[in-house]
Design brief:
- By secondary structure, this protein is mainly alpha-helical.
- Helices cover 77% and strands 0% of the residues.
- It contains seven helices and no strands.
Length: 152
């Protein structure tokens, strides 16, 4: 008289999730209707923007920290050199410094007068420009993230 039916429905999760969009897997079926309005290209652009922004922020943050460390090291080293010079531990040959600075100026004038880049440098610059043009969204996200990382 009291026969109980203990049959269960078996759900194969691998088959169930195979044909479902990723946002349904993450947010559940309730978000499907609004999320389906976006096409794959929009999702890829958003992904590029997020990846560019995150990597840019990390790079900017690290750049800011390393920049402060480098500025402290250079400033501290200059300060120590000035103290050593003032106390007589170091004697600076200012004529030699002036000669080397003038030599460097002449070399800069010589290289800038030609106004031509070496072919290998030009090809690298062209590669970078092509990459930036093809990945404008990624580059924009990186630039924005970099500025945010520098500010934080």
């Amino acid at each position: 008289a009291g026969v109980k039916d203990d049959s269960f429905n078996v759900l194969d999760l691998a088959e169930y999730t195979k044909n479902r969009p990723w946002w349904r897997k993450v947010f559940g079926p309730s978000s499907g209707s609004s999320a389906e309005k976006y096409n794959v290209a929009t999702q890829l652009l958003a992904t590029q923007l997020v990846i560019g922004g995150v990597t840019g922020w990390c790079t900017g943050f690290i750049f800011q920290k390393v920049g402060k460390l480098a500025a402290t090291a250079v400033g501290g080293g200059f300060f120590l050199l000035q103290i050593a010079n003032h106390t007589g531990y170091i004697k600076i040959d200012w004529k030699l410094v002036e000669r080397d600075v003038n030599k460097a100026k002449q070399q800069l004038k010589f290289h800038s007068s030609g106004n031509k880049m070496a072919p290998e440098v030009k090809s690298r610059v062209d590669e970078v420009i092509i990459f930036l043009k093809k990945n404008v969204i990624l580059t924009g996200g990186f630039a924005g993230g970099f500025l945010l990382g520098m500010a934080s």
